[in-house]
Amino acid sequence: MRAAAGLLLRLFGSLKLAVVLMATLAVVLACATVLERAAGRECTLWYVYHSAWFIALLAVLAANLLASALIRFRWKRRQTGFLLTHAGVLVLLAGAAATFLAGIEGQLSFREGETSDTLVMTDRSQFSVLHQQRHADGGQSPDTFTFQPGPVDWPAGKTLDLGERNSIGLKVLKFYRHARAEEHWVADESGRGGPALKISLLGPEGQAVAEQWLVGDQFSAAQIALHRASADLMREDFLQPPAKDDMDPRGVLSAHFEGQRYCIPVGENLGKKVPLGESGAAVEIAEYLPAAKVGPAGQLTSEGDQPKNPALELRVHLPGKDQPLRQLAFAKLPWLSLDGIHGWDCPVKFWYHHPAAPAAVGVEFLQTPDGELYCRLVSEGRYEPRGSVGKGAQLEIPQQIKIAVLDYLPSARREVSFRPVYCGEFGGGRVAREEAAALVEVTAYGTAQQVWLGRNDAEYGRQRLATPQGPLDVTFGYESLRLQFSLQLLQFKRGVNPGRMGDASFASSVKLIDKARGTEEVREISMNRPLVHDKYTFYQSSYEERPGESKTSMLSVSYDPGRFWKYLGSVILCLGIFTTYYLKARPRCQAPLGNASPRSSASPGCHNTRSAASEP
What we know:
This protein is 23% helix and 40% strand. By secondary structure, it is of the alpha+beta class.
């Protein structure tokens, strides 16, 4: 056993192995430098410095250094430099291991006046799953799933199971480092979805200029809109609105109740209760607001008598109800009501027509509750009804452009997918600015659902999934770390070169607030002067400045637990090299050669005991 251990020790401590390891390490570091120039720091960290094979290479090198020192046990004084040199390298490697295992690198960004105490770990991604019902009942925090995806797209077939938290499992099926969202709509079998319309703009020669999906109450860039009617007879308000010349100066209120339509002139019925047939229901026009706006207390007021934004304050009296329902009707926004705000569904629906509310869009589509789709055009401020339309219809609009209805879904739900984006799509070698995206499978309470998420995307970064135990909110972002103190950005200062060409310097004036230490003081972080507090170091890395917005400062934050050991190792290494050369440079006493005189053969200052004893 001892012989085998000795053989293994000599094998790891051999000089040949040391030469091979040092040569290999030199080649690796040279290649890593080239890779960093070509692909960036993130790729170099992932494929080289943070890879398992590179850590294994350093571990073998450490074993070689340790073994080479142990096989020379019973060290002599002249081996001091050798031992110090090896010890210095080992301490350096220990510091590097501490940095790799427990080091932290993140970012902190805030606008002027904002306070932040959270770091964003840009090399670590995180999914958060919040169960709405459990959170509402007990204030439970979201379940988090953290992983490091890497700097490139995952190859086909690669998946990552992130495990299970509180009966919720999550698996990553696809990952794109840079991705762009693609939206499409499919039929919603539940019938809860709104309408969706796919249209195409056709040029004079019939060629497709652009394709687009429209959903309920959404305007397109080409002045095309799709609306939802709350009553079937609203198609008459849509296709045949009252003529301006025949309209009351204060407009006409169209009320829909129990399949009937009632046209109420506003001027002659202001302040009155107008009965709706024999039903016992009535509508009271409480107030006419020609230029409506929201007041300080949340109530509607009018800025004047000119009809800039006509609106009506209504009271709906229903049989069996002691108190009337408050409702609003806007001429420019006939689809807007208070139902969603107050959480009720008023059985009386309204469409307010006013002569001062001109046509706002070029083409309008209207879906009625029975699923039919109607269309009208706007030409010179007048409506041109086109009646019922469906899939395959073509509509001529001004400027020799046609609209083709490619698809119509009475009840639709949105599906989002992502496609990878590469630098070549931008030209000039520019890096794609799109964030990452992932296809994840969420398993909860016996059901599995797949959904695409865009990392830190304001629109696609969060998705809500329906489960038998209530909805789940799934969010994709970076892992965050809460600090024990906070920084407030007081002012961001930017210096430019002469002629205002390029940045000369930029710095952040911050207030450091650490209640645990009783610290509250103003510090400045500049390009060459970082802020060190607690165990973290803050560097001024970049900034963002947009017209009309306050400046945003971005700080790089690091915590390096191996820094002391790396400095100590460097000192020991330098001391070992110095000691090695010092001991070699000291003169040594040599024995006399041939017939030479012992005295003449001794070096100056060297005491020769043999010659001294032979003298009389």
